[in-house]
């Protein structure tokens, strides 16, 4: 299985300041079809996961433009340009390039 | 917009079979997408269980493969999960989700609200 490792596991951030989460995969996530199936999920407290970013850097429908994704191969980053109160929750990177789909451990974003 | 809703018993006895259904609305289960199950033990992270296509093709997590069966009911626009020989370790919130596209590798773009299943006597 591909292991997804996120850092940090906890991120206290001041409102209005940026935040960044890193995700590293144990193998390249480039699929033979040329796509990289790396996405980011947000899970607010008591809610199901929600897709934020797909294929490294594409924002899903309705996702604010303060969220952005970047990276390639085995190293990926989710950035929030200015954290708002509604961004509190746990963020997961996930890969679908190779079965089984796997998830990072999650990064808890909290307000200082 | 696609919506998914899980349903099934909230309590299952040890050694029994966990059975859940996910109803799909706002889209057809026969569309070119794969239908997934993901679980989350209380206070822990996410684990992919497997997926099914409307044709009946499946991909399962090897860690659960011997105990998992998935099926599709096109007439009801829903799909189902059976997990046999359950133990307390199977206690979790179970989510259904859609993987976009026909390869099965697609991103999990729509999720149900989840249903808590507790394994206990």
- Count helical runs of chain A: 0
Classify the helix fraction of chain A into a percent range: under 10%
What is the averaged pLDDT score of chain B? 96
pLDDT below 50 for ≥5 consecutive residues: which ranges of chain B?
none
- State the helicity of chain B in percent bands: under 10%
Radius of gyration of chain B: 13 Å
Main interface by residue count: A-B, 26 and 28 residues
Using the alpha-carbon principal axes, give the shape of chain A: globular
N- to C-terminal separation of chain A?
36 Å
Count of helices of chain B?
A: 0
Main sheet summary of chain A: 7 strands, mixed
Mean pLDDT of chain A: 97
Shape of chain B: globular
| Order of secondary-structure elements of chain A | EEEEEEEEEEE
Sheet/helix structural class of chain A: mainly beta
- Quantity of strands of chain B, as a count: 11
What share of the residues of chain A does DSSP label as strand, in percent?
over 45%
Number of strands of chain A: 11
- What distance lies between the first and last C-alpha atoms of chain B, to the nearest angstrom? 39 Å
For the largest beta-sheet of chain B, the strand count, sense and barrel status come to: 7 strands, mixed
* Binned strand content of chain B: over 45%
Give an account of the 3D structure.
The complex is a heterodimer of chains A (112) and B (121). Chain A has no helices and 11 strands. Chain A is globular. Chain A has 112 residues and is mostly beta strands. In chain A, the strands form 2 sheets. In chain A, strands 2, 4, 5, 6, 9, 10 and 11 form a 7-stranded mixed β-sheet that branches. In chain A, strands 1-3-8-7 form a 4-stranded antiparallel β-sheet, with no helix packed on it. Chain B is built from no helices and 11 strands. In chain B, the strands form 2 sheets. In chain B, strands 2, 4, 5, 6, 9, 10 and 11 form a 7-stranded mixed β-sheet that branches. In chain B, strands 1-3-8-7 form a 4-stranded antiparallel β-sheet, with no helix packed on it. The interface between A and B is medium-sized, with 26 and 28 residues.
């Amino acid at each position: 299985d591909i292991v997804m490792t996120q850092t940090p596991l906890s991120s206290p951030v001041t409102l209005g300041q940026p935040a960044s989460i890193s995700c590293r995969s144990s193998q390249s996530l480039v699929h033979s079809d040329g796509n990289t199936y790396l996405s980011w999920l947000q899970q607010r407290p008591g809610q199901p996961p929600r897709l934020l970013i797909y294929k490294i850097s594409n924002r899903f429908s309705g996702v604010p433009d303060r969220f952005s994704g970047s990276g390639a191969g085995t190293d990926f980053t989710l950035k929030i340009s200015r954290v708002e109160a509604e961004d509190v929750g746990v963020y997961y990177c996930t890969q679908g390039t190779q079965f089984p789909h796997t998830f990072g451990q999650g990064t808890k974003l909290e307000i200082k | 917009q696609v919506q998914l809703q899980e349903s099934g018993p909230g309590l299952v006895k040890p050694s029994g079979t966990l059975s859940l259904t996910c109803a799909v609305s706002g889209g057809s289960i026969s569309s070119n997408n794969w239908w997934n199950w993901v679980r989350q033990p209380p206070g822990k992270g996410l684990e992919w269980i497997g997926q099914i296509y409307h044709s009946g093709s499946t991909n399962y997590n090897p860690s659960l493969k011997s105990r998992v069966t998935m099926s599709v009911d096109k007439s009801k626009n829903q799909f189902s999960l059976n997990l046999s020989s359950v133990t307390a370790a199977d206690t979790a919130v179970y989510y259904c989700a859609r993987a976009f596209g026909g390869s099965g590798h697609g991103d999990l773009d729509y999720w149900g609200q989840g249903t808590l299943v507790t394994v206990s006597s």
